[in-house]
Structure formats: C-alpha cells, structure tokens
Amino acid sequence: MIAENNSGGRAKGTGATIIRYRGVVKRYGAFTALDGVFLNVHAGEVVCLIGPSGSGKSTLLRCTNGLESIEGGDIEFEGTMLPRDERALRAVRQRMGMVFQSFELFPHLTAQQNVSEGPRTVLQMNQADANQRAAALLDKVGLADKAPNYPSALSGGQQQRVAIARALAMNPDVMLFDEPTSALDPETIGEVLSVMKKLADEGMTMVVVTHEMSFARRVGDWVAVFDAGRIVEQGPPRQIFDAPTTERTRDFLSHLGWSG
Questions:
Q1: Which one of 86, 142, 175, 191 is most buried, counting C-beta atoms within 10 A?
Q2: What pLDDT does residue 86 have?
Q3: Given this model, what pLDDT does residue 14 score?
C-alpha cells in the first residue's frame, strides 16, 4: 500500500502498519454494516474511505477506537489487538484523535478551554502547560485570535477547526475524521480541508471518511471504496479516480460527476 506521492513532495505510507483490519464484521441485529473488511494503514499515511452513504465507512471508523464493538474479524493497533475491556480501550482512544461530523464542543467553555480540557483532566497537565498547548494548537489551525470565544460566537468551520485542535491536544498517533466537512457551509469547507492537508504534509497518520473527492484525490495516499459493508476496490488515488477497476467504483464516481 505504498502509494504514489500526490501532495507536493510528501514521502508517505512508508512506515510500519499502524492499523490492520482483518475480516472485520459488524452487525446491528439482522443488518450487517461491515461484511469482512480487510485494510491496512501505515504510519504517515492518509487513507480516505469513500462510497455511498450507509456503506459502512463511519461504522469502520467507530470500530477503530472501540466506540462500536465488532462481531467478527480483528482490528490491530500498533501491532496489538484492540482490547475489549473498556478501561484498556480508553487508553487506546487517547492515542487516536477523532473528529466527528458534529463539532461536539462544550458550549460553556471558550475555544482555549475546549482544547486545554483534555490535557488538563486526562493527561494531568497543569493549567499553565495545558493553556500553552491549547494556544499553540489554536494558532496551528489559524484561530489564535478566537481563543477567548465561545462556540456560539464561532462559524461552523471555526468550530470544526477547534475540534481538530482539541483532538491534537492529546498528542495522538492517529487522527480519525468522520466526514468532518459534511455539516459545513460550502464557503467554510476549504478552511477545514486546508488544516487537514497541513496535518498530512506534516506526516500525521490519518483515516478520513469523506465525500470530498478532490481532497481524497489530492491528499490521500490510499483510497478504499465501500459498498454495502465491503471494500469493493482499494488503491492509490490515481488508480481509483483515473482508472478504477470495478464497475461499482465507476458507477459511484460517475454519479458524483467526477471527471478526474
């Protein structure tokens, strides 16, 4: 899965396998949401999960950090099976930053307080150090001047960037993004994608569920196409978008008006 460099000189996907999915099955009653998913994610790699809504992409992401349990197969994180014990899972989740569709910020806390809360309460950092980390991360996502603002005073794109800073504050090994731009107005989508591209350029390992095909094509190192709980095709972006090998991939992209 060592992909062609698509992002201006990045050397990506050459590291060890960070996440390994082996025949992952997830059911909700009689409905099979994941039906035998095989996929590897390497250190420093941006893996984009694409496909129609309801095809299992977000479910796989939630299984990755144990927010959802699996009924079959295995998920390995950094060479170790994902634990089933909730206490052990919490330790794993600290190493996986997750950004959701909805921003899920604490409305009663400022942007800086939202970002510093995790390091202070979970990592046991003192208040000064947590505030310093929060300030640096808000600057990183272009929101240094919004530190004292409450979420209600921020745009959707700004709130999502605060959410990214909050996830980064835990110093994760992997960032998981679940359709991070789906709730945004078109004019703010670019703000969030720009921050994500910067993280990719810096070598952050990322798994991204997205409907932004241009982002997947330009920033991704590996793309997995989902349909009905299965990966129907996976490969480097140039293959998926310019020369897909399955009819289902071609049909999905054509319905989106993708022309390369």
A1: 175
A2: 86
A3: 58
| Dihedrals phi, psi of 178, to nearest 5 degrees | -105, 90
Strand partners, 72: 25
Side by side, the strands of the sheet bearing 17-28 are 31-42, 17-28, 72-77, 80-81
Main-chain phi, psi angles of 228, to 5 degrees:
50, 45
Helix (H) or strand (E) holding 208: strand 205-209
CA distance 161 to 169: 12
**pTM for this entry:** 0.91
pLDDT digits (tens, 9 = 90+) for 138-183: 999 999 999 999 999 999 999 999 999 999 999 999 999 999 999 8
Distance (Å, rounded) from C-alpha 218 to C-alpha 12? 13
User: In the chain, at which residue ranges do the beta strands (DSSP E only) sit?
Assistant: 17-28, 31-42, 46-50, 72-77, 80-81, 96-99, 174-178, 205-209, 222-227, 230-235
Instruction: Give the Cα separation of 99 and 102 in Å (integer).
Output: 8
Given CA atoms 116, 121, 207, 188 in this order, what sign does their dihedral have?
negative
In the structure encoding, which two tokens stand for residue 168, read together? 């980064």
* Alpha-carbon gap, residue 146 to 240, rounded angstroms: 39
Chain-centroid distance, C-alpha 231 = 17
- Residue among 110, 100, 183 nearest 144 (CA): 110
In terms of Cα–Cα distance, which of 227, 165, 248, 178 is closest to 207? 178
Residue 251, token pair as written in the block: 């049909």
Residue 197: how many CB atoms within 10 A of its CB? 17
R_g over Cα of the chain: 18
